[in-house]
Amino acid sequence: LYWLDISGKQILRANILNAGPTLLNLIFVIIFVWVLRLSVRGAFMALFLGNLCMFFFVFYIIRKSYHITWKYHEGIMKSMVRLGIVFALSIFIMQLNYRVDIILLKKYSTLEQVGLYSLAVQIAEQLWHIPYAIETIVLTRSAAAKDEQASNRTVASIMRVSFLISILFGGIVYLVVPNLIPFIFGSEFAKSVPMIRGILPGVLLMVVFRILNSRLAGMGKPQLAIYSFIPALVINLLLNILWIPRYGGMGAVWATNTSYGFGCAIFLGAYAWKVKMSVIEIFRFRKSDFYFFRNIKTKIKWKAQT
What we know:
The chain contains eleven helices and no strands. With 306 residues, it is mainly α. The longest helix is centred in the middle third of the chain and has 38 residues, at 148-185.
């Protein structure tokens, strides 16, 4: 129960760190753009203040949780810079894979298709809040793990349950978007519904990648994501150039799904080899995967009694 309390706090903190900038940006946009009528300048002020608030929040969390010293350690700094460059390159490759389709849509299609596809991506990628909340915890615990095989089995279990939850929410998104999109954004955005539905498989596959990759990142092996997704990026570029001029936003959807699937397949093979587990073993569900929910139920009853 104590472990659940700690994990719950970590998940809440991770959600605040991930969703906080967006929420703060929305609040400041309402204040500076809608109320004070500062237009583009207000939008920039909102973005700056939102990120500034999150910076102070992160600094407060770090000071509260860790002892900070300003002493220079040359060996530690060199190690951090070397590893940081690899992490930065990994993030750059992934972000380029996520956004290259929008860049190519601007070049080979119309602004209408860019808008529809951008909305579809933004809606579908909300499913990534599940791995966003979990991957921070997996990364930190992986870095401190002593029993590697036990950690590998635990991460695989977390991935399976998270993937199942993501499929459930993906199904809900699939069902509600035909009514939700016109209601929120207007009937002119109803054309984005097929794109949202079409891109869901690729987004769901990336849930698997993000959680397993956090394990490798915690082990200090972020380069495997680079090796896996550089070929996927090339495929994404080629298929977008081939399909966007003819099919518009839906061509970008198919290219994205294909590249995500290809990258995840390579990554799964590399991950299985690295942690010495077969792909079947990584994906095979077990009763123990769902003990977490049983423990939550026990915890709720225990709190109710106290």
